[in-house]
Structure formats: structure tokens, C-alpha cells
Amino acid sequence: AQSVTQPDIHITVSEGASLELRCNYSYGATPYLFWYVQSPGQGLQLLLKYFSGDTLVQGIKGFEAEFKRSQSSFNLRKPSVHWSDAAEYFCAVGAGNAGNMLTFGGGTRLMVKP
Amino acid sequence: EAQVTQNPRYLITVTGKKLTVTCSQNMNHEYMSWYRQDPGLGLRQIYYSMNVEVTDKGDVPEGYKVSRKEKRNFPLILESPSPNQTSLYFCASRPTGGTYEQYFGPGTRLTVT
Predict the structure, then answer these.
(1) pLDDT for A47-70, tens place per residue?
(2) Which of A72, A100, A105, B3, by CA, is between 20 and 30 Å from A32?
(3) Given an 8 Å threshold on Cβ–Cβ distance, is B48 in contact with A49?
(4) Distances from the Cα of B66 to the Cαs of A15, A67, A108, B61, B86, in angstroms?
(5) What is the pLDDT of residues B28-58, one digit of tens each?
(6) CA A67, CA A52: separation in Å to the nearest integer?
(7) Rounded distance between C-alpha atoms, residue B7 and residue B107, angstroms
(8) Residues belonging to chain A with any Cβ–Cβ distance to chain B shorter than 8 Å
(9) Residue in A closest to B60 by C-alpha
């Protein structure tokens, strides 16, 4: 069965600083990989996704992620964090036919210092 | 507006009292799914449905039932709720194929006492 690990439960960065959120997955085949963001009291919004092709994917709000098969990782990055980026971030791997079963990591809560 | 709606948004109930959380989408999506979110565990898939009358178990189906009689609706049924089902529940939908992006509802916070 697939699994996702987000090693950092909480991360605090200063506004304007760079950000990297870690995600490691376990899956026997080529995975479908996703990053979602959840603002307080809200549902989940897709930031970006990887299915195949270019291993560096661009998403919304200036985020990007890089798929590294050798490290089973899909880390999320942003060069300059804004206060509005404070939220919880979830990495997910899709398995089964067309990624029908989504397995999420435990989430990383990002706090942004002014 | 394209959206996934859930009702109720908040529910407090007692052990053993049957309840249903409704989920509806207006995007004509074939695929729908239910998740529960618990601190430190992220979201865990309960059930999903590929289309009308087609449902399958996710990672944590015990204690839950679903039905898919219409394309737009995918209710989650707890026939005998227990306190360990206290959680935040999300419904999601997406079209078959395409980008595989799932669209999430606003969530239902359930407390079972």
C-alpha cells in the first residue's frame, strides 16, 4: 500500500524568506503526486500536481515542486513567502486506476512571521 | 458557481443515533469521495465512487456506509456513530480522466458524545 510522510509538523518562516516543505512517498509504481493547501476553516485547494514528464512542476500562488524518483520525494518550494501563505499543506499520492485512491500525508502547518 | 456542498456543516450527536451527511456537486463529475481529517493523520479516504451505483472502500471504511443513486449526490451514512468517529469530514469530486484534480467541499465537523 502507498504511504506519504511529511516529516515537519510545523514550520515557521519569516515573510520574504524561501520555503521548502518536505514530502516522501512510498509506492511501487509511478505515482500521481499532489500538493494541497488548507487555509483555516476552509476546504482543500490544489496547488500543483505531477503525473509524468518534466519533474519540476509549477503551481498556483508561486509554488513549485520537484519530483525526485531516486529519493521518493516531492518537495514543495516557494522563493519568497507571503503572510497569506500561512496555512496547512498536504502532500498526497494517488494510486489505483487514475489515482482514484488518494493517500495524504499528515500535513505541515506553516506559520509566517512578519 | 461550480462547487461541492456538504450539509450539515456542524453536527453534535450521541452514540448510536443514525445520521447522514449529504454531499452534492453541480459539476457533473463521475468520481466522488469521502475523507475524514484528524490531527496529525492528514486526510484518510473512507469511500469513493466512480459513478452511479459504483462504490468502493478507501482506507478507513469501517463504521460508514455510502450510496450513489444519482450522479450529483454521495451521502455518507453513520448507522451507529461512536465517539471515535468524531472528526472533520470532507467530500470531494472530480471528472473521470483529465487532470485528476479533486474539488473539495467545505467540510462537516462531527462530534459524537
Answers:
(1) 999 988 888 999 999 999 999 999
(2) B3
(3) no
(4) 44, 35, 30, 10, 18
(5) 999 999 999 998 888 999 999 999 999 999 9
(6) 9
(7) 9
(8) 4, 6, 9, 32, 34, 42-46, 49, 51, 90, 92, 94, 98-107
(9) A103
